[in-house]
């Protein structure tokens, strides 16, 4: 009976690890996309060509763009919460974006480490089960 309970525990742990590995992959993709978005905003704010241009395409989200002029010396609107925006000097926004990129990178590294450990555990359990089954057959 104990052998059957062990199999159930191993199966449950494998299912848990597989679920964690899959969900962490989705989270990693979202964090990576966040870094890319912050990087694009940072690039635009730091680009001299953008502010010298008479017109730019400005993303409104959802693949919709508007033509407009970005003036580096004017304050920009920055989301700081759910539907909460502040006006901020571009230099301050650049520093804010750099900080956000660093925080997301740390989260991404931590999640990658956790995923790698879960994957290692998953593979070790599978290898142990396969080895045990080979011994049972012999």
Automatic annotation (TrEMBL):
Sorted UniProt keywords: Chaperone, Coiled coil, Cytoplasm
Q: How does it assemble?
A: Heterohexamer of two alpha and four beta subunits.
Which top-level group of life is the source organism from?
Answer: Archaea
One Pfam family from the record: Prefoldin
Question: To which protein family does this belong?
Answer: Belongs to the prefoldin alpha subunit family. Belongs to the prefoldin subunit alpha family.
Q: What does this protein do?
A: Molecular chaperone capable of stabilizing a range of proteins. Seems to fulfill an ATP-independent, HSP70-like function in archaeal de novo protein folding.
Q: Does the keyword Zinc-finger apply?
A: no
This protein's name: Prefoldin subunit alpha
Name its species: Cuniculiplasma divulgatum
Q: Which GO terms describe its molecular function?
A: unfolded protein binding
Q: GO annotations under biological process?
A: protein folding
Query: Gene encoding it?
Result: pfdA
Task: Please give the chief subcellular localization of this protein.
Answer: cytoplasm
Localization terms from the record: Cytoplasm
Coiled coil ranges = 94-128
List the InterPro entries: PFD_alpha_archaea (IPR011599), Prefoldin (IPR009053), Prefoldin_subunit_alpha (IPR004127)
Cellular component terms per the entry's GO annotation: cytoplasm; prefoldin complex
